[in-house]
Amino acid sequence: MNNSNKMDPNSDHRGIGYYNKYNIDNRDNKENTLPLKEGNTENDFLIQSFGLASREEQEATVFPERGVGSAASDLDNDSVIGAVVQLFDNGQGQLQQYKLKARLNLADKSNPEFIAPLTKNIQNFKRYIPQPYRDELIQLAQQARKDVRDKFDVWPYLGKFHFNQGKTAGTHKISVEPNTMAIAWYNNIDKHWAFTLRIHDFTLIGDLDETYLTSKQKAIGVKCQYVYRNEKFAEAERPLTWIEQRRRGML
Q: Distance (Å, rounded) from C-alpha 233 to C-alpha 229?
């Protein structure tokens, strides 16, 4: 096994291009596959360190009344109806091989899209993190990074989101969105990619799947994706049953 796999990306300051160049991040290269650990099949170990609600907690609470949250002004778990999270692979040798994209369907009918270029180098991750959340995000990233390493023997990818404004005429400048971060890694036990993300007060954790990708998606570099549906809004969108209406004093 290549001993370079044990190298902490934090110990080198040459950037992610260095790691991609030597294929340290290439899970398909058997020589670079780290040994598996028994019993590490859940992602919930990140819930506490990353400040996430569990899937059960995310889906357990329903709106007490229909339509609550439809005019949400902040981005949090009560204002997101659904989301599509996609991992893009630009190919080996690229300076930025992977990026995580999250398209959100909000209660106010808007659909913002955020993109996080990913790196394994903690020094690259720390660059340009805006205040006032910089220290908190760095601490969370370091803890989650350690947790993933301890569970799966891999260094996870880290990223910061920026709002995707599309092709803006005359400029390619981007601004890192405050209070955002992404973590992605390959679960070499269950053989799939996994992620956690934080975009302001919206947090999510999930497993990325390539089963339902279209040929068009694959052609533009989508490697795998996760589709999230907020059960709170499923309750709000469907007609209430007789018993639900009665219990809420509507009948």
A: 8
Q: Which residue's structure tokens are 């309750």? A: 235
Measure the CA–CA gap between 99 and 222, rounded to whole angstroms. 10
CB contact at 8 A, 159 and 181: yes
End-to-end CA distance of the chain, in Å?
69
For the full predicted model, state whether its pTM sits above 0.85: no
- Domain-by-domain residue ranges, the chain? 3-247
Q: Write the CB contacts of 114 (distance below 8 Å, at least 6 apart in sequence).
A: 101, 102, 103, 104, 161, 162, 163, 164, 177, 180, 199
What CA–CA distance (Å, rounded) separates 57 from 175?
32
pLDDT digits (tens, 9 = 90+) for 19-55: 232 223 333 333 322 332 333 335 555 555 554 444 4
pLDDT digits (tens, 9 = 90+) for 138-174: 999 999 999 999 999 999 999 999 999 876 555 567 8
